[in-house]
Amino acid sequence: MKSQSDLSGTRRGPGAAAKAPRKMGTRSHAGIAAPRRSDPKMFVDILFGAPLSGIEAVRSIREGYPARILKSASSFFGVPDARIQNIAHVPASTASRLEKNEAKIDAAATERVYRMGTVTRMAIEVLEDEGAAIQWMRQPNRALGDIAPLELMDTEPGAVAVRQVLNAIATGGVA
Prior knowledge:
Blueprint: H1 4-7, H2 41-48, H3 54-63, H4 69-77, H5 81-88, H6 92-100, H7 107-127, H8 130-138, H9 156-170
Helix pairs in contact: 2-4, 2-7, 3-7, 4-5, 7-8, 7-9
């Protein structure tokens, strides 16, 4: 299993370049580039940037993430925009309007995206492969009542259940 420091870069929060090595292609950038609409880089910043925790995480969540992070997450996971919008509880029309106005999603939706990122980071660390982690997050899991881990990211209890399964995998338990 990779250590937290193996996956953390020097950045904080979405919007700047990730600098951590990854199994499936490296996203190492010298500067900050504005992501394209379907570019997963913004979501990747949550995964591979320096982990936000404590007060930093609270501030970032309260400030809100740019609405385009929803498309970034759907591109990262290879799922329709509607799936991520549903998990974040942001209606498609609201997401479209916010993105068009270059606005931010609210704190509750931001927290759901943050949770999605931190749990996915854990899955990548435990499974030691980004592609395997993405697949694992998207597919129904027997240990989670045949619900895909990604679908449980809309609530903290759901994320706790997913973390428990990942901890069982990491320690050789049954999951």
